[in-house]
Input
Amino acid sequence: MPAEPPNRRTGRLSPDSEPHQRRQVAESFGTDAERYDRARPPYPGALVEAIIAASPGHGVLDVGCGTGIAARQFQAAGCTVLGVEPDARMAAFARRSGVEVEVATFEAWDSAGRDFDAVISGTAWHWVDPVAGAAKAARVLRPGGLLAPFHHVFRAPPEVTEALAQACWQVAPDSPAPARWVSLRPSDQALDAYQPLFTKIADGIREAGGFSEPQQRRFGWERTYTRDEWLDELPTHGRLNLFPPDKLAQVLERVGAAVDAMGGSFTVPYTTVAVTAARTILA
Ligand SMILES: C[S@@+](CC[C@H](N)C(=O)[O-])C[C@H]1O[C@@H](n2cnc3c(N)ncnc32)[C@H](O)[C@@H]1O
Output
């Protein structure tokens, strides 16, 4: 998950303020790639259309493509997509689903002189060095090409989030809170909590140079989860995906009870936020 606000118990800023340096979590999502692909939500169609409309062509590089959720959406919209993904388990799933993938971190990946009309990254740019990543994107984008990292901003209802936080702290008290949204107080706005991440992405683009001024675009939507759908998605999130199975089962049991108490389902408002910048056209 993206960088966290100060931890609610300690009041301290979590070490996640530099998430790309925590490689164990950064490359942990393939522990259950099938579940990841099944449970994680896709991206809004309006976001896909907006990125394509702002790009000079249909050649897309998907950084941290994972199992290929965003890549397949761009393919379905008529793009040719190459994925770059360091976790071989995620890459293997993406290939089986029809996405071409090269296994590497974006920072270490060899572009071999290829260039692209858009560099996208769905829920993955926080795992990439924000300055080195933007500088690399600048090198592989054609003039006018678009850099477009995007992330989902969301929070489950407070009852469900609180049950998750309590369960994690009781079952695994030495583990850090598993996700940004566990640290939120009921009055916090999810977008405010994520804003430092988007500021950091924009600052990285400015520092790398070679781009227009970064813009932020927001796409609102919502998703209704049944108890089973939420319990399927939860273990795909960073840190929870590293919990030992017995501890995870205890956490899920308590969260499931909280969803049952709400009638067995709930609706989550999502905002998918893209930070975009165009590769400056060189004279
Ligand atoms: C939360 S997943 C998102 C996957 C996919 N983009 C999606 O939308 O479902 C983050 C992905 O970023 C990958 N990743 C981590 N560090 C990376 C890096 N330095 N360069 C490229 N990808 C990275 C992880 O292996 C993981 O598959």
Remarks:
- Residues 190-208 form the longest helix (19 residues).
- The mean pLDDT is 89.
- Residues 26-27, 29, 40, 63-66, 69-70, 84-87, 90, 105-107, 122-124, 127-128 surround S-adenosylmethionine (CB under 6 Å).
